[in-house]
Recover the amino acids of this structure.
C-alpha cells in the first residue's frame, strides 16, 4: 500500500486571483526536470505494492491502493521515453497523485525537487515546430534549469484513462447557427484547443478565434477595444472562454484585465478548466468571471456560451 509522505497543497502560500502567480512542483524523470501546477497535486507518496492489470496501455504499471481508494499508476518515464534506459537516479521513486477533470491519476517519478512560486509571465509557450507532439505546455528557467511543464490532461487522454474527447458531436447537441456571435478563447493545450474549436463549430459557432495563452488573447481583445466602445464591442467578440493555467498570463489574470478595460468590461467570461474547485470558484468571483465549466464537459461549455451570448 502506498504511504503518504506529504500533501503538496499544504504549502502555506495562498495565491490571490489575478496576481498571475502559481506554485510549480518540480520533479525528475531520468535526468530531465519537469513541473506541474501544485493545484493539481493531491499528494506526494511513497510507492508500495502495485497490482498489474492485463491488456492496458504499456505505460500503465497497474493499480495502487491509497488508503480506501484505488488509482491507476502510470510510469511517466516509459510514457515520455518508451523503453529507453536512463542512468540510475539516487534515492527511491515517488508517486505523484494528481487530481484534475474530477478524476485521480498517479505517476511514478524518480525524484521530487521542491515547490517554486513563480509568475506565469516567466513561463514560455513551447515553440511551434513540425512534428512536435510532446505533452508539454510551456517551459520555465528555475535555478539554472529549464523546467518543462507537462500537459497531464493530454497524457491521461492518450493512455485512455481521462476522456477529453466528449465533444458535442457525441451528445446530439442541436446545431444553432451563430456566425454573428464571435468567440475568443485561450487554451494552451493543443489537443484541447482543437476539441474546443471542433465542438463550437459543430454547435454552430463559426466565428471562433483561439490563442495559446492569456497574453496573446488580451492583446487581441485590446486591439478590438481600440476600434469599439462598450456599446459595439459585442459585435467583435460576444464571449471570452479561457483556461486557468497558461504560460505568460493565466485565465484569472486575463479576466481581471478584461474587467479593468472600459470597452471590454461587460463581456461574458467563461472559465473552462480541469481545475474547477471551490477555491477557484471563489477566485473567479473575485475577478468577475461569469461562470466556470469543468473539462471535458464540452456540451455544458456550449450551453453556457449560448446563455452568455443570449442565444438560449
Amino acid at each position: 500500500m502506498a504511504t503518504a509522505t506529504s500533501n503538496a497543497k499544504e504549502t502555506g502560500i495562498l495565491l490571490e486571483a489575478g496576481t498571475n502567480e502559481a506554485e510549480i512542483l518540480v520533479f525528475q524523470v531520468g535526468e530531465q526536470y519537469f513541473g506541474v501546477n501544485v493545484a493539481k497535486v493531491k499528494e506526494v507518496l511513497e510507492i508500495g505494492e502495485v497490482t498489474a492489470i492485463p491488456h492496458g496501455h504499456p505505460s500503465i504499471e497497474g493499480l495502487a491502493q491509497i488508503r480506501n481508494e484505488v488509482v491507476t499508476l502510470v510510469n511517466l518515464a516509459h510514457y515520455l521515453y518508451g523503453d529507453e534506459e536512463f542512468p540510475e537516479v539516487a534515492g527511491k521513486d515517488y508517486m505523484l497523485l494528481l487530481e484534475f477533470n474530477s478524476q485521480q491519476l498517479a505517476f511514478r517519478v524518480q525524484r521530487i525537487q521542491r515547490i517554486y512560486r513563480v509568475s506565469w509571465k516567466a513561463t514560455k509557450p513551447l515553440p511551434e515546430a513540425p512534428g512536435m507532439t510532446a505533452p508539454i505546455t510551456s517551459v520555465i528557467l528555475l535555478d539554472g534549469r529549464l523546467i518543462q511543464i507537462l500537459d497531464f490532461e493530454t497524457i491521461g487522454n492518450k493512455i485512455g484513462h481521462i476522456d477529453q474527447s466528449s465533444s458535442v458531436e457525441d451528445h446530439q447537441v442541436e446545431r444553432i447557427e451563430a456566425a454573428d456571435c464571435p468567440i475568443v478563447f485561450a487554451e494552451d493545450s493543443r489537443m484541447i484547443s482543437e476539441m474546443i474549436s471542433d465542438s463550437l463549430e459543430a454547435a454552430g459557432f463559426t466565428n471562433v478565434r483561439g490563442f495559446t495563452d492569456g497574453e496573446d488573447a488580451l492583446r487581441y481583445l485590446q486591439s478590438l477595444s481600440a476600434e469599439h466602445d462598450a456599446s459595439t464591442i459585442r459585435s467583435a467578440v460576444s464571449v471570452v472562454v479561457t483556461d486557468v493555467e497558461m504560460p505568460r498570463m493565466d485565465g484569472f489574470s486575463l479576466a481581471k484585465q478584461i474587467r479593468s478595460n472600459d470597452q471590454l468590461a461587460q463581456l461574458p467570461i467563461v472559465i473552462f478548466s480541469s481545475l474547477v474547485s471551490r477555491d477557484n470558484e471563489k477566485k473567479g468571483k473575485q475577478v468577475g468571471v461569469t461562470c466556470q465549466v469543468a473539462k471535458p464537459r464540452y456540451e455544458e461549455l456550449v450551453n453556457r456560451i449560448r446563455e452568455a451570448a443570449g442565444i438560449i
